[in-house]
Specification:
It comes from Paraburkholderia bannensis. The protein is mostly beta strands. The chain has one domain: 3 Solenoid (UDP N-Acetylglucosamine Acyltransferase, domain 1). Helix content is 13%, strand content 33%. It has 1 helix and 20 strands. Strands 1, 2, 4, 5, 7, 8, 10, 11, 13, 15, 17, 18 and 20 form a 13-stranded parallel sheet that branches. The chain has a 7-stranded parallel sheet with strand order 3-6-9-12-14-16-19. The radius of gyration is 16 Å and the shape is globular. 38% of the residues are buried. The model has no long low-confidence stretch (mean pLDDT 92).
Length: 186
């Protein structure tokens, strides 16, 4: 469902993207080309700052927003999801937040008030809160990264983790084409 926020902003969705009919996109949301937004995802840019302004939530080209993902922002802050990035089932991305290109965010993970660098992998049930994760870092499942975390203790992404992320991104491209092809069959 595509709908306005109380300020009157409507999402802008590239014609090559696929948005599942059960997903909700509300407000100042920009969905770039060949993006897949799965069932029951909610992407909501509706809160304003003290001046009544809202920064956009941008989903970069060829990204994969899976089932039940929630992307929102506090007080109109920006959220940017890079290109070729995968956000897995039921993850929460809450702005202010910036996620780089070719990033994988695992099931049930939470990102808040942070930036996640290019090529990072954040595995399932992990939390990144209040810090900047540099390019190429690997956050294991159930680990919490915050402002006091010594990033020297966080490993770099292995070749196998990078291959997994690329495989998920390729799956996205196939799904977008497939779902777009059958969109009018119902």
């Amino acid at each position: 469902m595509i709908r306005k926020n109380p300020r009157g902003d409507l999402p802008v969705v590239h014609e090559s993207a696929f948005v599942d009919p059960t997903a909700i996109l509300c407000g100042r949301v920009v969905v770039e080309q060949d993006v897949f937004i799965g069932p029951y995802a909610v992407i909501r840019a509706d809160e304003t700052d003290t001046n009544g302004e809202i920064e956009p939530i941008v989903i970069g080209a060829h990204s994969y927003i899976q089932d039940g993902v929630v992307i929102h922002s506090k007080s109109g802050a920006a959220v940017t999801i890079g290109s070729h990035t995968s956000i897995a089932h039921r993850a929460i991305v809450h702005g202010p937040c910036s996620v780089g290109d070719r990033v994988f965010i695992g099931f049930n993970s939470v990102l808040f008030n942070c930036s996640v660098g290019v090529g990072c992998v954040v595995r399932h049930n992990a939390v990144v809160d209040g810090c900047d994760l540099p390019e190429g870092f690997y956050v294991p499942s159930t680990v919490r990264i915050g402002p006091a975390t010594d990033l020297a203790t966080i490993p770099k992404v292995s070749a196998s983790a990078a291959e997994f992320s690329e495989d998920v991104a390729q799956t996205n491209n196939r799904l977008v084409r497939g779902y777009r092809r059958i969109a009018n069959e119902l």
